[in-house]
Amino acid sequence: MDEDLKPIVTVVMPVYNAALYLKEAVDSILNQTLKDFELLIINDGSTDNSLQIIQSYDDKRIRLVNNEVNCGIIKTRNKGLALSTGKYIAMMDADDISLPTRLEKQVKYLEQNKDAAVLATKLVLMNENGEEQGYWPEDFRTTTVSQINKTLPISNCIGQPTVMMRADTVKSIGYNNAFLHNEDWGLWLNIISNGFVIAKLNEVLLKYRIHSTSTTVNANTKGVEKKIIRFKYTYLRQKFFKLKRTDYKVLSSFFNDVIKYVAPTLYKVVTKLYKVNPLKLIQQYLTVRNQLSKIDYAKRKWSNLEI
């Protein structure tokens, strides 16, 4: 493709059985104030009428790729990265809404801040009817590069569908197939582990939809704590012989998560097996130790008195 014809941004939108909210998502991109982009929609073997909805658009900025069979979100995202032609790649989910100035503001920032490889924005949560339902706490608490670097090894704070990335950087790393349901978090950790900068605009530029069929909701029903521990274990296992500074922070948070997850179970086991409350046992031990210390102090005091 001629360099002059390449758009500055490729928006990658994976679609799988997203007919209910798809039109809102597509329209939110087509109505952006920035006009120099391509919308790369990858229909991942949908069995509803998602494909028909996409084909109903007559807009040259839309490029449709149709997977005949369902390949899964990670392979589809990586396919989107590989097929992107823009200088920047913006991610977008098929059930969310990008606010009109999102792409324009992100391009402007990345053009002015060459050190940033990934640029996220804040997001607001909405329900199935598009009504705002509050915020994602980790997202709103982390706005600076320093805050992001401190938070990511502990918990995810970057909204996948808010990001715009430098194509050359993200294509060289990509999404890891081992991080199912956490492929975005794994990518962010790999990016900062390799010394690249993730920044965030301190502004809400995307509405993130929470509904019963969303990937996030379904993954979290399996237990958030176990999901996080499993992800960190998988991440560390893949980096075992090449841990970098950021990865040691992931290792530390992994052990903390395991301890917090296991402690209540151990408490119940000890209580059941030994018919004793571990907390009372510890309190009794500390009381006895305190009394013994007082007795020992008294002995030493009297032994030092001159008669």
Please give the structural blueprint:
Layout: E1 9-15, H1 19-30, E2 37-44, H2 50-55, E3 62-67, H3 73-83, E4 88-91, E5 97-98, H4 102-112, E6 116-126, E7 132-135, H5 137-141, H6 145-151, E8 164-166, H7 167-173, H8 183-193, E9 197-209, H9 215-220, H10 224-238, H11 245-274, H12 278-303
Parallel strand pairs: 1-2, 1-4, 2-3, 6-9
Antiparallel strand pairs: 4-8, 5-9, 6-7, 6-8
Give structural notes:
- It is a single chain.
- 48% of the residues lie in helices and 19% in strands.
- It contains 12 helices and 9 strands.
- The longest helix is centred in the C-terminal third of the chain and has 30 residues, at 245-274.
- A hairpin with a 5-residue loop joins strand 6 and strand 7.
- The chain folds into 2 domains: 3-214, Spore Coat Polysaccharide Biosynthesis Protein SpsA, Chain A (Alpha-Beta Complex), CATH 3.90.550.10; 276-303.
- The relative contact order is 0.11.
- Strands 1, 2, 3, 4, 5, 6, 7, 8 and 9 form a 9-stranded mixed β-sheet that branches.
- It is α/β, with parallel strands linked by helices and 307 residues long.
- Mean pLDDT is 89; it is low at 217-221.
